[in-house]
Design a protein that fits this description.
By secondary structure, this protein is α+β, with helices and mostly antiparallel strands. It has one domain: Aminopeptidase (3-Layer(aba) Sandwich), CATH 3.40.630.30. The chain is built from 4 helices and 7 strands, in the order E-H-H-E-E-E-H-E-H-E-E. A hairpin with a 4-residue loop joins strand 2 and strand 3. The radius of gyration is 16 Å and the shape is globular. The model has no long low-confidence stretch (mean pLDDT about 90).
Length: about 190
């Protein structure tokens, strides 16, 4: 396994991070990879309107509307190998919960980076004293991701069958959750 460090995404690194995300999303729907985001193959890039909200969210205090935090696992050469982000739910009275998003570069999958990123996010969330649960939504057909989340302690709490119809294919959405308290150190 390669050596990597996990660091918070800083504002000066944000453009590089978006470039990484767009490269990562470019694989979405590829026959060898399958769908991992509810985006069609022709529009698999990070939406520009969401990019501004993501960037702004990094500066918003946790618990306030629109907050977001992101981390990247970087190799020795500084290349982003994977990422994870947490953000607040948009609904009121959900300040004790957050949503997780993540991805690992295609050349680094199945090397433990995803598990380490999840553990890092759980520890950070637990340190906030505000967050109690991390939720996520994953395409049900993305069995590798579902297995990773299960291994990290997430439990399945629901599924919406045929939530999306993308490129003439129906895809379902699974919701999973994990408590943040009691997370153990990753190292």
């Amino acid at each position: 396994m390669s050596t990597y460090l996990i660091n918070a995404i800083s504002p000066p690194e944000f453009d590089e991070f978006i470039a990484y995300l767009n490269e990562h999303l470019g694989e979405n729907g590829n026959p060898e990879v399958g769908y991992f985001q509810p985006l069609s193959r022709s529009t698999s890039s990070f939406p520009v309107d969401r990019e501004a909200a993501f960037r702004a969210g990094l500066e918003i205090p946790v618990g306030e509307q629109g907050w977001r935090r992101a981390w990247a696992a970087r190799g020795r050469d500084g290349q982003i190998l994977g990422h994870i982000d947490l953000r607040g739910h948009s609904e009121r009275h959900t300040e004790h919960r957050c949503l997780l998003g993540m991805g690992v570069h295609r050349i680094c999958r199945r090397q433990g980076i995803g598990s380490t990123l999840i553990q890092h996010a759980k520890l950070w969330a637990g340190s906030t004293k505000l967050l109690e649960q991390i939720d996520l939504q994953v395409l049900s057909e993305n069995q590798a991701a579902v297995a990773l989340y299960r291994q990290a302690g997430f439990t399945r709490v629901g599924e919406i069958q045929h939530m999306f119809k993308i490129d003439d294919q129906y895809l379902s959405y699974t919701t999973m959750t994990v408590p943040v308290h009691g997370a153990k150190s990753a190292v």
